[in-house]
Amino acid sequence: MCGIFAYLNYNVSRERRYILEVLFNGLRRLEYRGYDSSGIALDADGGQVPSPASPYAGAPPLVFRQEGKIENLVQSVYSEVDEKDVNLDTAFSVHAGIAHTRWATHGVPAPRNSHPQSSGAGDEFLVVHNGIITNYEVLKETLTRHGFTFESDTDTEVIPKLAKFVFDKSHDEEGDVTFSQVVMEVMRQLEGAYALIFKSPHYPNELIACKRGSQLILGVNELSGQQNGKSFHDVKTLTTNGKPKELFFSSDLCAIVEHTKNYLALEDNEICHIKDGSVSILKFDPHKEKPASVQRALSVLEMEVEQIKKGSYDHFMQKEIHEQPHSLKTTMRGRLKDGGVLLGGLKEYLKTIRRCRRVVFIGCGTSYNAALAARPFVEELTGIPVTMEVASDLLDRQGPIYREDTAVFVSQSGETADTLMALDYALENGALCVGITNTVGSTLSRKTHCGVHINAGCEIGVASTKAYTSQIVAMAMMALAIGSDQISTQARRETIISGLTNLSSNVSEVLRLDVEMKELASSLIDSESLLVFGRGYNYATALEGALKVKEVALMHSEGMLAGEMKHGPLALVDENLPIIVIATRDACFSKQQSVIQQLLSRKGRLIVMCSRGDASAVCPSGSCRVIEVPQVADCLQPVINIIPLQLLAYHLTVLRGFDVDQPRNLAKMHKKGSETWHKKGSKTYIIASTLSLLLVSLFILALFLARKYGLLSNKPKEEQMIKSFLQKNGNLRTKRYTYAEVKRMSMSFSIKLGQGGFGDVYRGNLSDGRQVAVKLLKDSKGDGEEFMNEVASISKTSHVNVVMLLGFCLEGSKRALIYEYMPNGSLERYAFNRNMNNQNLLNWEKLFDIAVGIARGLEYLHRGCNTRIVHFDIKPHNILLDHDFCPKISDFGLAKLCPNKESAISIAGARGTIGYIAPEVYSKQFGIVSSKSDVYSYGMMVLEMVGARDKNINNADSECSSQYFPQWIYEHLDDYCISISKINGETTEFMRKMIIVGLWCIQVTPTYRPTMTTVVEMLEQSTSNLELPPKVILTW
């Protein structure tokens, strides 16, 4: 995967030689990610002095690119510097340099395809890029028509050329244009995943970074006093005080740790602009012309410089293998307490995981193997079925993921592209997503609902070693935590916890086999293939051991399930093929003994790994080589057994003369391929293009594509906004109708179903005969952005208790929403009209079912959606009932979308209906606005549903749902219980449950209210398990 690094010094003098070494060293720290070429760009002499021969103020920057290792680039730069007579001792008080390591995806490894990529002659815009631009061919074709010529084969080259196009066009039309405005317009045209850094002599001493889908880190080192860069102090916020400072951009924390420990990870669609020593962070929204300013606090890096250095070891892989006793201790530190397991990142979700239908482990490569090793004991300790998915295969098949699933994503870096795409897929399908990663602040850790950091420390070697064993241990602790409520497995859990306590010392012991494994490697150096047989817990060990030999020693090797030996692999056995059989003591030991005998009978060249003292049991004739390892709890044995195989792979690689830390054709992380994936039913660009070709001529299609990316666009702002929305949400079911079509389907709005503050609702029919409800909103003079937000909110939902949006209309000031038709109208009809003839339809059981259904719908909105939705207007009027009286939440006009990781919500004023609005929505003194605000509204509504059932306790003055407040329930609960004692016991249970749940939900302090998940659990419990909350004291 490509690596990005940039360095800007402000008000601190740095010589060009020093700047070069900082850039080179930053690239060296990123070598482990894999690369095949590299490049840098920095300022020339007189970079800040106007030059009449140049189209901008200053001389063109110095750009160097080279194929191969970073040292090739270093030699090339110093050679060119001598030839061009560039003074390396020139000092700069302000300077911005960028650097890059490239992993070829578009175009062969060559200097012309290396980064920085340029806008053309004069290098007016330079870009380093990590990721892939999926629509680069369209952009390239359009830019070519505008006179641009391309020199490389990369997708990246369109970015600086697009920046120049935007700059020239904006400069001609509007005069001055800021660097951030140029970058934002470029982002508006790009599709795909990327992290970008822009440098331009039009904006000297400025850098702009932005990202969407690829990791990018900002490091800050601020100088204290006037010590000219020699003494820096820790800062916790981004300052604009003009103090001397050093600023860094990097794809990874390990490249900045030796410079600073203060950093922040940029979020998707954030733009970080460094100018005059100040750092500005803007949130780019393609639907808005102006970005929002973002205030971010710096985090403190816990990594030490020693972790990114080899120390006394020859290679990083060797160092990381021998670090495993320590890395396992840090994985478990503070988590094994009082005979149990404490995982703070999972604590709030354990109950939800225990209720799930199945656990789905999803990963790639080594991470997949670690999950496979964990599967048996997760099933054993939790009693939950576990399925395994390779991330890319899950996407190819678009395998079923359900809302009742818990999807566990395993990735050392937290940036593995296939794993992240699978994560998006699972989120879209409503599954609870758990992350297991080694990287704090990674995309995986930010996108998942909860998770466990394995804390194995920085892993530089491309071949993962210590992360693998820490992943297994982390998942073992996860299984212990999930299954901690099961009495039947208590003894087993105690055994495993005891084994975890002693695991580090056992790993130290097995590392003493280093010399023995080197001798074994020397005997295998000339072999062409290797088979590894494992079974049970150690099937994963066989796969991982073979993978290590394959990826670093470049020897063909295969991990085999020993139970499948007779079904093909046995045909390969002869006296020349080395075979490793893992036969440590567990439930499969006797079966592995049989496998060994069968292989020996066919003169197999056997190497057997067994528990200490079992040499004679596994190889009584002494005809095979034996590796003895310490015996631990069977489910932890894979941690022990993999280490000799890691050592074997390492020594084989060294003896065969290959690069251990940077194997051929391998990278630590992999970015998204040019072949993008979409879920079923998506209206992909390819499909849209195909349909266009069938319907219109090639000329019209070309014009459409040009306008799509804004280069020839003259459409109204409203149409551009809608198009952007549809491009972003093209996989949704919503259909756009014209106003004439809406008028026709509603028979000119002739059958009115109801009305509200935002407009009227009419009955209508689609062309296929389906009945619909047409909500015609009042005329608005806005550009429709809020309306489209409502469309976005409800279009992201798919739940039996949320109304389905079938289409929408936005035509000038005319706005309409087309919903599925609800024949029984709203809940308010039944909750407040006590003279209805059909009131008996809503008996207590039906009313209780409605309350449960609404709770499940809200739980889905708060936790089940890819993007959390807070409704802000829960009341009977907005609960619709279908023909079976199944409730469906509707009217999302006041809803807010917020990322799942964020709990607090920013709103511009009180929103909702009086009588249902949570106190914190009115005043911040009550707490933060969050999804708990919906919980309050739900509680008010449930208490009204209860109060509407008996005329003796109804407030005579409360005929309107917006005025009722159930304070009387606290004062008259005993009398009320007497009044319902005449009703049968089951009905009493329903009523009591609704009252108690409602009272918990209307607690004044948001933190005292349950989540909607807890509300659902409470409604499913017996009232004997529910306690009354403290009385609400509310002062308005």
UniProtKB/TrEMBL annotation:
Query: What are the record's GO terms for cellular component?
Result: membrane
Q: Its Enzyme Commission number?
A: 2.6.1.16
**Domain Glutamine amidotransferase type-2: where?**
2-277
Out of the domains of life, which is the source? Eukaryota
Tell me the residue numbers annotated for binding ATP. 775
Limits of the SIS domain: 349-489, 520-663
| Record-linked SUPFAM superfamilies | N-terminal nucleophile aminohydrolases (Ntn hydrolases), Protein kinase-like (PK-like), SIS domain
Q: Give the UniProt record's GO annotations in the biological process aspect.
A: amino sugar biosynthetic process; fructose 6-phosphate metabolic process; protein N-linked glycosylation; UDP-N-acetylglucosamine metabolic process
Tell me which PROSITE patterns the record gives.
GATASE_TYPE_2, PROTEIN_KINASE_ATP, PROTEIN_KINASE_DOM, PROTEIN_KINASE_ST, SIS
Provide the primary localization.
membrane
Q: What class of enzyme is it?
A: transferase
User: Is Transferase one of the keywords UniProt gives this record?
Assistant: yes
The biological pathway it contributes to is: Nucleotide-sugar biosynthesis; UDP-N-acetyl-alpha-D-glucosamine biosynthesis; alpha-D-glucosamine 6-phosphate from D-fructose 6-phosphate: step 1/1
List, in alphabetical order, the Gene Ontology terms for molecular function in this entry.
ATP binding; glutamine-fructose-6-phosphate transaminase (isomerizing) activity; protein serine/threonine kinase activity
State which residue ranges cross the membrane: 685-706
Domain Protein kinase: from-to ranges = 747-1026
Q: What is this protein called?
A: glutamine--fructose-6-phosphate transaminase (isomerizing)
Q: Which organism is it from?
A: Miscanthus lutarioriparius
